[in-house]
Design brief:
Elements (H helix, E strand, L loop, with lengths): L27 H4 L10 E3 L6 H6 L4 E5 L2 H12 L1 H10 L4 H9 L7 H14 L27 H11 L2 E5 L2 H4 L8 E4 L24 H13 L3 E7 L2 H6 L4 E9 L9 E9 L11
The chain binds S-adenosylmethionine.
S-adenosylmethionine binds next to loops.
Length: about 280
């Protein structure tokens, strides 16, 4: 631990369309320093707003997330960025319209309308939080200081990055089934601590605290396959103990995980990786 992670000055390809609680936007320039220099397949099984992916625009990628509505929005963003941007911009940014859109049943909507609704609600909700009730319905109140919906050009740039990505909605272990030598996997699972409310933080199917063991096991399998992994997690003794020979960087970050100020604090986060910091070499 205790190593410094240098920032990479390269320009980012695109900014993410989504506001996402737990986004690593502020760490992108440092995380990019850990990407392999040779051609590689990029895999991100906890994609969220996928800011590292959009900044990097890899030639060959797999993006996954348990949030099926998020992945559906990425599908439409990849294929119809301009139509989608127009649809989202056409929805009035009023409080009344927000709650009307929130009441709508996405399952009864056409794919383009469904994706537009998701992007709209994400933009104007409280702090980019995704939370659902027991019935799986989005229930986050409208926020303030949400910023604007990105313009059409930004939608288009994201679609260009997504053209080279396979999208896999579902649990991270399914997303990682075919990891092979030379792949690069960035894992940014939800933090499951006693302090952060788990239920519904990213929807009801989201990771629970017992699942950290599954994440650790997945990283070990990636390493055994001869692939790179980079894991972001809060400073946790369990994670440090699980990777005694890995390189670990400590970052001080302002966390905004659950979106509520009582859970927002400056904390120490870890970036754990099997990438050799001197050579950038594969583990095997
Ligand atoms: C911390 S966020 C990722 C943030 C992302 N790195 C970014 O910069 O926006 C964690 C993500 O994991 C997803 N997630 C939760 N449980 C999951 C699971 N079991 N399998 C796959 N994704 C899961 C959530 O939907 C959420 O988008």
């Amino acid at each position: 631990m205790r190593k410094q992670l240098a920032a990479s000055p390269d320009k980012v390809w695109a900014r993410p369309i989504f506001r996402w609680a737990g986004s690593k936007r502020g760490q992108v320039s440092r995380l990019r320093g850990l990407l392999p220099t040779k051609t590689f397949r990029y895999i991100e099984p906890f994609a969220g707003s996928a800011c590292l992916f959009f900044a990097t625009r890899p030639d060959n990628a797999v993006l996954g997330d348990i949030n099926a509505d998020l992945m559906q929005a990425y599908e439409v963003l990849a294929t119809h960025p301009r139509l989608l941007a127009a649809k989202v911009h056409a929805i009035p940014a009023t409080k009344r319209q927000y709650y009307k859109a929130r009441r709508e049943n996405p399952e009864k909507m056409l794919p383009l309308d469904r994706a537009a609704r998701f992007i709209y609600l994400n933009r104007y909700c409280f702090n980019g939080v995704y939370r659902t009730n027991r019935a799986g319905r989005f229930n986050v109140p409208r926020g303030s200081h949400t910023g604007r919906v990105p313009d059409e050009r930004e939608f288009y740039r994201c679609s260009v990055a997504l053209r080279n990505a396979e999208l896999r909605a579902g649990d991270f272990e399914q997303c990682l089934v075919d990891v092979r030598k030379g792949d690069f996997v960035y894992l940014d699972p939800p933090y499951t601590t006693a302090r952060v409310p788990e239920e519904g933080q990213y929807g009801y199917q989201s990771l629970r605290s017992g699942d950290l063991t599954r994440v650790i096991r997945a990283c070990k399998k990636i390493d055994e396959a001869g692939a790179h992994f980079v894991l972001s997690y809060h400073a946790s003794a369990a994670v440090l103990a699980a990777f005694p020979t890995a390189t670990t960087y400590a970052l001080m970050v302002r966390r905004n995980v659950a979106g509520y100020s009582r859970h927002r604090r400056t904390g120490r986060e870890l970036v754990v990786t099997n990438v050799d910091p001197r050579t950038g070499a594969s583990p095997q």
